[in-house]
Amino acid sequence: MVALDYEIAQEQASALGRLGRALEVALAALSEHDRGGQMTDDARAKLMRDAGQHSCTTIASRKKCKIAWEFSAEKADAPPASTGASPLAVR
After folding, report:
1. Most exposed: 12, 43, 64, 78, by fewest CB within 10 Å?
2. What is the pTM of this model?
3. With left for phi above 0 and alpha for psi between -120 and 50, is residue 37 left, alpha or beta?
4. Alpha carbons 32 and 15: distance in angstroms, whole number
5. Around 86, how many Cα atoms within 13 Å sit in the side-chain half-sphere?
């Protein structure tokens, strides 16, 4: 059973990585569009929908895998805790 749990965790991590990379690509395309000064409403609206869809999918998948990103402005500038705790918390 432990081997199966490990394999499931590996696949979840892999899937979340793919989703994260797709979100990065969508956000980069939107950013590039905005930097290029191409302010056609239709093109930007499509890029916004794509980025929004990727964002929602990524967040929903993280929640489904019970992974939460714990972030606060106070912790952002602080060095990592000596305990080696990850900013990813499995609940």
Report:
1. 78
2. 0.64
3. left
4. 26
5. 7
